[in-house]
Amino acid sequence: MEFSEHIKTANVEDVVLRRPFYQPTKGTLCVTGHHLIFSNRGGDSARPFLLLLRNIDAIEKSVENLPSVSSGTITLKCKDLCVLQLDIPGMEECLNIASSIESLSSLETVSEMYPFFYRPPFLSLQDQWGLSSTEQHYAQMKEIHDGWRVSQVNRDYSVSPSYPPAVIVPHSIDDETLVKAARFRQGGRFPVLCYYHRETGTVIMRSSQPLSGANRKRCREDELLLQAVIDGSELGYIIDTRSSQQAQQARMTGGGFESKSCYRGWKRLHRQLEKGKVLQESLIKLVEACGDQSHSVDRWLSKLENSKWLSHVQTALSTAGLVAECVERDGHSVLVHGSEGTDTSLLVSSLAQLILDPDSRTLAGFLGLLEREWVQAGHPFQQRCAHSAYSHVRLRHEAPVFVLLLDCVWQLARQFPLAMGFSEPLLLRLAKEVYASDYGTFLCNSDQERCVTGVKERTHCLFQSLLRANERQHYSNPLYERTELAIWPSIQPPSLQWTCAFSPIQWPFDMC
Amino acid sequence: LEHSDKQVRMLDRFSNKSTSGTLHLTATHLIFVESNAAVTTILHHHIASVEKLSLTTNGCPLVIQCRNFRVVHFVVQKERDCHDIYSSLLRLLRPVSYEELYAFSYNPKQNDQQREEGWQLIDLGAEFERMGVPCDQWQLTDVNRDYKICDTYPRDLYVPITASKPIIVGSSKFRSKGRFPVLTYFYQEKKAAVCRCSQPLSGFSARCLEDESMLQAISKANHNSRFVYVMDTRPKLNAMANRAAGKGYENEDNYSNIRFQFVGIENIHVMRSSLQKLLEVVGSRSLSASDYLLGLESSGWLRHVKAVVDAAICLTKAVTVEGASVLVHCSDGWDRTAQVCSLGALLMDPYYRTIKGFMVLIEKDWISFGHKFADRCDQLDGDPKEVSPVFTQFLDCVWQLTEQFPQAFEFSEWLLLQIHEHVHSCQYGNLLANNQRQREELKDRTHSLWAFLLSEQQNYVNPAYCPGHAETHPVLEPSTLPCHFKFWRNMYLQFDRSMHPRQSILKNVLTLKENNRQLEDTVKELEAVSNLSCLPVCLLVCLSLHSRSLFHSLILAMSLSVCLLVLILSHYLTLLFSFWVSWSLSHGLCLNVSASCSVSLSLSVSVQKFFNLKALFAREICLITCQNQNSQKYKI
């Protein structure tokens, strides 16, 4: 196996491991293709400490080479925000280990990643990968069968490379129209259904931006598609997750927005949600603030403010609240999109569903929602979660949109402690798994890539695993009481809470 | 004075919602009854200010700010009515004598004996005995029996055995307001004492031999340590400025056996404006997250809260780890000193973390040692510069600790909120007036808050409280990481319902706990029954299965009646079940059998469910505490 060429020193004795919450322990360190294994020779702790190399975000080393002592220290900053320290006797061993970790943790070939080798006894590769498919989801919603249908137009991923093979669209729109409408949307992400609200019969849809460009191009088919959605009712809302200025600017690069004159009955509202680099930097600043050792409240508050993380939480929740309000209170359908339709649109649409839909607040329902709205809908996990807050690597596509979602869900759960079927440990677990995992769920950027690399055949699904009986018990909310009502969050800042989960010393609790 | 106005609207200060109803003004309360019969009651003493805004098309707006942080916005349709309410309230707002306070008209339908008993519920003499005082090193002194030495101290004071009367008198003359060093908490395990006093009148160079011997005596009373820590809770600059006025702080050169240190808690004026700023920030409409955080920072409130907690931690470490005695003072020794001493005791002694213990703590460090409740809480019309949220801040510090140690406190935050409510309500005699001496006269005609709170203490129980926590963690070591200091929404925005979690865990957990307790009892009974009744039940069942004839049924009926007698005696539910099963079997009533089986099955399922819940809940709590302990470990 080619991993071996990266491993210069496989074993070192008498290494001291320092990690939060534990006494420093001495033992043997072993580097394998995917893990760092630390086993305590004392034997009192039967299980060796295992760290996925993929989990390592940044590595710092310092060596001391004196005639009397030759040793080195490696500090490992993990993507789950845990910080570990290894004291290694022998400078050469230390440098060897460090370089092995560096090269092994940055391997990018998907099929060489650990999920392809992970074979737990309690799961079988023959099991269904994932919880549900679009067809199954559609079959469950009997009440939409009149107005909506499942389209296989993307079965070979040619219409939209980031969409799943099957999507739900209005009945009256045929596949040909969809193909044409897709050409008018960035990445072919034409408007598709993501939530149907039974009481009012209205829907939440999502898409990417229309490619109207500088000369205000139009697309008949795209207009028809949206017209079919609000057929009969007079009004629909388009929630654009960019500011109107940003939307205007997007036209210069071929993007754009739905103009009022072309889309009769659709009213556009702009709510600016940050994404990409801004969000990633926000997370980096937040983690830095949490790790601040000055013990000064003022510094903490100003750093927290400076990170703007709570503002992002507030905006995300208020936009989702707006969508939910349009659907439930005003009884109008909503289309959510930003530019690519793979980040903030998903954030808003899934939060709105949590607010509205009691089914999505159960443990299985929430995981199903994540699968539908994030994994299948083509959130580029591999690009977004390549690095976390410690990495020195220059940012390209990284953005903690999914972590922001988890924080927003946590805020919701804080305000409605009885309404959620899952508990905080689940959110922490997901935040950890999304960066480095034994499972294949968060690998790759889209359904297409997952098929090509054989993720669905050769890895296990995290969601399946989380729903096993004993895991289910661990991640359920013991106080859960189902409520059929929408849960309207308060978005006043004093109602939002800061969590110490982003602090490096708080994080590892999900390991308990 | 009685007044009611039918056409009044109450506006929510954060949304555009409003409700209409009737406003009633009584001698003691302002009552707003909404059209859906919801009632908002405001005690006149709670009102800090009334403001009449300029007339609008809807009517005349009236804004009332309360001391318990309620802000109500009424719109009265007719301007004349509004003016009437406004001027009546203004008259009621500023009571000048204690007799005008609600405590003297409040009558909870108790006779004099019950009232008297209420006052005796908390006994500070017994409390010092619990701490192990008097002992071979500390004694009760009668120098202040008639409030002659210090009129803001209680009658009973505890001093070192070697401190003779002349030393006490001399020392008290050298201390501001005569507040000489006395014992407030005794840490029995290490025989270390926490003492309190006011600043010395040292000026730039004055010294007092008696005061020096007093500190010597405190030092000698503790064999663990050769010196006494003197904690001046003021910032150094403030203490130095006091020297110009003939006051100041202890000079380490004059006192041979002290370690002197400043802690840097700001004074009452800084705290007053800090809280004012905080309330302005969180009270503003459409607040952005950034403005909120910047506002929190610039108000400095959390910084001040942390400073108090830090000082208490410092005190606790000195006493419990080093075993040294500590003397705490500020300027007059009734604000910051009370905060630090009581918070320190709360960290050191699990007793103070119980409901009764917490009352004892407040009685001891705040009430008896003369925290000026009347002045600080603006109970009577007085100097606005004397008003300061020192006690509120103490409650805030306690809340921060309850958040960090959810298992350690018997009481929930509702006790803190209720106490805060009554500091301003002037409904009970405990928290009136400025010191014990003034209070003694009021006691005869008022009721005790503690009796009231203890009578409904089930409302204040913290469901996560674990009595065993006290044994494993007698001394609390809170984290001082700034992210652990939070804004106390339930205090400062208590009445703004839109801000709060829409669902409350507390009620739910309490019900669960109660159900759980009942089920556990049932399970115990069932177990007892199953041990006893296994044999006869089996026999009966066998018998009844084989008996179909009339004769057998007769025997069965006889045995049944005998057993029913037993049943009535013992109230055993299962026995009834088994009899029912056997009886119905014997008569071939299969339907009944299946019904009873399903009943018992569902019973066992529900028992199972509650046990699961209990286990889960325990795990959650465990996680939280473990988090706190561990973060502590890591820091060290």
Write up what this structure looks like.
Chain B: Pfam families: Myotub-related, PH-GRAM_MTMR6-like. Chain B: InterPro entries: Myotubularin (IPR030564), Myotubularin-like_Pase_dom (IPR010569), PH-GRAM_MTMR6-9 (IPR048994), PH-like_dom_sf (IPR011993), Prot-tyrosine_phosphatase-like (IPR029021), Tyr_Pase_AS (IPR016130), Tyr_Pase_cat (IPR003595). The complex is a heterodimer of chains A (512) and B (636). Chain A is globular, with a radius of gyration of 24 Å. Chain A is of the alpha+beta class and 512 residues long. In chain A, helix 6 runs antiparallel to helix 7. In chain A, strand 6 and strand 7 form a beta hairpin. Chain A folds into 2 domains: 103 residues, PH-domain like, CATH 2.30.29; 367 residues, no CATH class. The C terminus of chain A is likely disordered. In chain A, the strands form 3 sheets. Chain A has a 7-stranded antiparallel β-sheet with strand order 4-3-2-1-7-6-5, covered by helices on one side. Chain A has a 5-stranded mixed β-sheet with strand order 10-11-14-12-13, covered by helices on one side. A two-stranded antiparallel ribbon of chain A has the order 8-9. The relative contact order of chain A is 0.12. Chain B is α+β, with helices and mostly antiparallel strands and 636 residues long. In chain B, 49% of the residues lie in helices and 13% in strands. Chain B is built from 22 helices and 14 strands. Chain B has a 7-stranded antiparallel β-sheet, covered by helices on one side. In chain B, strands 10-11-14-12-13 form a 5-stranded mixed β-sheet, sandwiched between helices. Chain B has a two-stranded antiparallel sheet with strand order 8-9. The longest helix of chain B has 46 residues. Chain B is globular. The C terminus of chain B is likely disordered. Classes of the chains: A alpha+beta (512), B alpha+beta (636). At the A-B interface, helix 7 and helix 8 of A face helix 8, helix 9, helix 19 and helix 22 of B.
